[in-house]
Design brief:
Helix content: 40-55%
Largest sheet: 6 strands, parallel
Shape: globular
Number of strands: 10
Length: 271
């Protein structure tokens, strides 16, 4: 556990949190608790949401253009790819073209191994994340001692996005998607959340199981990584900013949502 920090000096720190949608708000909530006086820039590419079904080349192109656009106007201290799909496809390449630290997230398989008693783990993520060679190599290296069962479904990301936007949830649809894991014979006792959107579905995920399970998220791990970077600095609070790539029909509602998360400025990106 890390201690919450208060900053009162004059140096401005800007943390960029980037996602295709609103799933990255689950990362922001954790960071904002530990670092309340840092400035946050949240960017979401809702024009191309979700990224989970997009080509790797398109994901990298969109990410590099958006981050470059923002960094020309704001001095970014750290950028966080608050999306497993972006991280597995683009983190290495993005680090090569930007001068500031860029942190990605990947499914925390290591932590899940320490929690499981049945040695059967579930990985819930996008198809792109699950099929990435690093993830597949890790899963295969654990056999036969530990089995990692994977599950992906594009609709689940959209369901989570709708819950965040409108507080609407279709439990029947979620149960149908997660049906492969809902049998009493299922021995999964630990589920890795490999998509930040699914942090908002923890209760629904837990409820499909007949017993209490461990749900593993990457939030705390990210907070510790960022702590190591920002603890040496002092900061002055400015304003939190939201960047988006297109206007939506329920745009006013989305703005109200971000205001609840303490964001004050809103700007459309022209990519």
């Amino acid at each position: 556990m890390i201690n919450r920090i208060n900053y009162s000096n004059t140096k401005i720190c800007n943390i960029l949190i980037f996602d295709s949608g609103l799933g990255g708000l689950s990362i922001y909530k954790k960071l904002q608790y530990y670092f309340p006086h840092i400035n946050y820039v949240y960017a979401f590419d809702n024009e191309f949401f979700p990224y989970g079904n997009k080509k790797k080349s398109l994901i990298f192109s969109r990410c590099s253009k958006i981050i470059n656009k923002i960094s020309k106007n704001i001095n970014i201290t750290i950028a966080i790819l608050a999306c497993n799909t972006i991280s597995v496809t683009s983190l290495t390449s993005l680090k090569k073209i930007f001068h500031f630290p860029i942190i990605g997230i990947t499914p925390d398989i290591k932590k899940a191994i320490t929690l499981t008693k049945t040695n059967i783990i579930g990985l819930l993520a996008t198809k792109t994340t699950i099929n990435h060679y690093n993830i597949q190599n890790k899963i295969m290296s654990l056999l036969p001692k530990i089995i990692v069962k994977t599950l992906h479904h594009e609709k689940l990301v959209k369901i989570a996005e709708k819950k965040v936007k409108c507080n609407l949830i279709n439990k029947n649809q979620i149960n149908k998607i997660l049906k492969p894991w809902s049998s009493k014979k299922n021995k999964i006792d630990t589920v890795i959340i490999g998509c930040t959107h699914f942090n908002f579905l923890k209760n629904e995920i837990q409820n499909i199981f007949f017993k209490k399970i461990h749900i593993v998220s990457s939030n705390v791990k990210i907070s510790n990584n960022i702590f190591n970077i920002v603890k040496k600095c002092n900061y002055k609070k400015n304003q939190n900013i939201v960047f988006f790539s297109k206007f939506e029909n329920n745009h006013i509602f989305i703005l109200k949502l971000f205001k609840k998360y303490k964001f004050q400025k809103f700007k459309k990106l022209n990519i």
